[in-house]
Amino acid sequence: MAVVEISNRARAWALACAVFVVAAVAQRLYWIAGGRWGYTACDRTDLVDPAGGCGADQVVALPFWSGWGAVGVGVALAVVLGCTVRFAGTWATIGSWAAAALLLVAAFPLHLVFEIPAALAGRPSDWRDLGARLVLVAGGVLFAGLANASGPRRGPAAVGYRPVPLWTRRWAYVAVALPVVGWAVPHGLWVLGVPIGISERELNDIERNLSTPTGVAITLVPPLAGLLVLGLVQRWGQQFPRWVPGLNGRQVPRPLAVLPAGVVALTLVTYGVLSIAVLVGRLLTGETHWSDVWDGWAVTATLLVFLGWGVSLAVTTTGYALTTSTHAAMTASQDRSVHEPR
Question: What span, in angstroms and rounded, lies between the C-alpha atoms of 164 and 250?
């Protein structure tokens, strides 16, 4: 494979990725050496002390993926980074896209969507875990930015507002409606004490473990965040509104819209597929019975909601990307030239 010089923009992304990889590996080596700053054991112990990492200071031997396994992943990321910088091009960026997907799936941003509002509302939370997930999200975004910047040159993006196809709008409305109907409505009823689709025991657990502010936050944040998908089918998703200081009327950079939407779509689909697979596995092994599924049908349906939400968001994002692509702009320009009077 020939060595290709990468752009200055790609070099900046590569430098940021290198800082992320070095910092992540250094932290894991620090943990292996015996330090525990930033480490959490809340998913491995029965201690209830999320603010203190659930007894992280008392952990003697690190789990493999928290120690040497994570170091190995860091080395693999460094190799991917080096290949992307040295061999810029279509094939070289595949590794960076794969690294971005790995980091984002490991971060599981959907967990952050629920836990951060709950923590801000006063619920005891494991801030070490939340911080680590935010760092992984940042790493995924950095590698995605590197892949986008080091790929083949595509020329300038479409300029001006271009209406998206009707099918894109329809999928966008589905992506907006699903978290409202499939998440906000049932969770709002449960917070109010209405046992629709769940057992009385589960309802009692919700009332005992969720304060009113936390319940409201968990209920409203996902559908409110879902409203951002409308930007993919509206003018303000392609051009900044005129009331935005300093940016009024300017073109919205495509990565600013496509990358976050793609990340969320990937996370939602991954969560939906994995959760359904776990449920099916438990049904096959007998750990869960069909009667439990029917008694908690609303909880089971939530898994399908996440999957459908992710798919609809992915299709909408694809429609936005196609509409704002260089090819779309060239086609529109050609159409105008053909129909213009000579």
Answer: 18
